[in-house]
Amino acid sequence: MSTEDNSVRDPAAPPSALTSLLYLFAFLAAVFLAAAAGGAVTATSVGDWYQLLDKPPLTPEPWVFPVVWNFLYFLMAIAAWLVWRTSGSFDRSGLPLAIFGCQLSLNLTWSILFFGLKSPTLASVEVIFLDIAIAGTIASFARYSRLSAVLLLPYLAWALFATYLTIGIAVLNQ
């Protein structure tokens, strides 16, 4: 008779396939919950107030934003999951995932400032902090998974483009 407890996982062992899949769905749910909250705030003024604003050159058609953002949110969730999966636990991936959570919160805050409070000026200041947080997330993720860092590069590029748009709107509508 064995006294060995097979239910206790070796902390150095990678998570099981089922656990990994469940966490993938958890990361997707968390990221898309933040996206839905931002979308709800955006919906309060995108159809009226935003339409009346002067916009800088290169502003995309309105349909482009939800398509791009949904793709980027998907990549963000996959990147965060890869960091967790590579490290094998939240204990070992806590700092990069905390930075990820911070940038995700800043992403939502931008929607609140820009669309909720209708303040392109405040959103212009905040989006710079968002850009820095995304760059910090990429740097911290790269230590765990190069692929996770690469998956966030389109997000950084789009956020920098959003910075241009946000500041452009703030300047053109003072």
Rg from alpha-carbon coordinates: 19 Å
| Secondary-structure element series | HHHHHH
Beginning-to-end CA distance, first to last residue: 79 Å
Number of strands: 0
What is the helical fraction, as a range of percent? over 70%
Globally, the shape reads elongated
Structural class: mainly alpha
Major sheet: size, sense and barrel closure?
none
Average predicted local confidence, pLDDT: 92
- The share of residues in extended strands comes to under 5%
Tally of DSSP helical segments: 6
Please mark out the parts with pLDDT under 50 across 5 or more consecutive residues, or reply none: 1-10
Oligomer: single chain
Q: Can you walk through the features of this model?
A:
This protein is mostly helical. The protein has 6 helices and no strands. It has helices spanning 17-43, 49-52, 64-87, 90-116, 120-142, 146-172. Helix 1 packs antiparallel against helix 3 (64-87) and helix 3 runs antiparallel to helix 6 (146-172). The radius of gyration is 19 Å and the shape is elongated.
Which helices and strands, and how do they pair?
Elements: H1 17-43, H2 49-52, H3 64-87, H4 90-116, H5 120-142, H6 146-172
For the structure shown, list the relevant keywords.
174 residues; mainly alpha; 6 helices; disordered N terminus
Task: Write a short abstract of this structure.
This protein is an all-alpha fold. The protein is 76% helix and 0% strand. Helix 4 (90-116) packs antiparallel against helix 5 (120-142).
